[in-house]
Amino acid sequence: MGAVEELEELAIKYAQEAVNLDKQGKRDLAIIAYKRAIENLLKIVHFQPNYTLNRIYIQRANIYKTRIKALQNFWFNDSTLTFENPEEEEREIGGLILEKPLGVRWEDVVGLEDAKRAIKEAILYPSKRPDLFPLGWPRGILLFGPPGCGKTLLAAAVTSEVDATFISIDAATIMSKWLGEAERNVAKVFNLARRYAKKRPSIIFIDELDSLMGVHNYEVGGEVRVRNQFLKEMDSIIDKKNPTPLYVIGATNKPWRLDLPFVRRFQKRIYVPPPNYSERLEMFRLFTKNLSLDSDVDLKELARLTEGFSGSDILDVCQSVQLRVNSELFKSNKFEGDIKPRGITMDDFREVLKDRKPSISPQTLSLYKRWCNEFKAL
To answer: What is the pLDDT of residue 79?
Structure first.
């Protein structure tokens, strides 16, 4: 066992001890145990400053510090604790579930036709006519590509189209809520999704998938156990004899970090690239439709000038020109009543674009293309 793994085991031990003592009303002993848990968590951060779970460990240490202050003041607020109460745990997991439609439709997703087609074939069609798929259908879909290009939007759109229950999780959700019990809670999330899937399709959406399923230089036992539990759960839903409409959609900006056995569990691996010229043009039309534009604004030229920009980058550009003209109005002190800002001109866009570069580098794009060529599965 490595030094970091030993520190994690000690942090788990003291954290569980602190919670039990806290439940029993033994405040002084609970404070000591919380402090020891904090000490071991911060040692991990100190010894491995680049460790991927440091943010989670710092977050957990801060929660324990807050609890210590509460106990020292004889003030109780049990919302900072997680007890081993199945009903309480299910309420926490239930908070990750969005049962109402997300309100995103296919027409809200500009471009990405290959991705839309693959997702429809894997989820939409089998959900409507499962009897037509005696060999089963894909249950795992991996969306990979640069940030801000529509991965989450695609997941939201298919959820709305099939009226599915949407369960959203990430590394912080799994690892920080239940320190030391992460793999058990992976199972709980899947079990809850199976129960919902008895009534209608259920989608587990895992954001920042590489944080949970990636291979890192420094790993502790908790990460390995979580990966193994996910593999087990994925195997159970991929079984072609299982008709349950339960799907896992994973999104990642760093697919090359994923553990290869986990990659194979996703039968559909879909590249979500930056928008091409026609898609950028459509985005400018969409994002500026409620803005007051002067007649000199050339959306085709803007689409040409923003080659390499992500959809999120283009939205940021449009928001910036909106802010530019609104700021002028407020600085003039003539914003009372129904006075409107002046119309947005092409020069406004040019000035904004002077100070903006694409958030995606050509080098990073080449990494995506290389990984796509090796692993894509539409």
So the answer is: 35
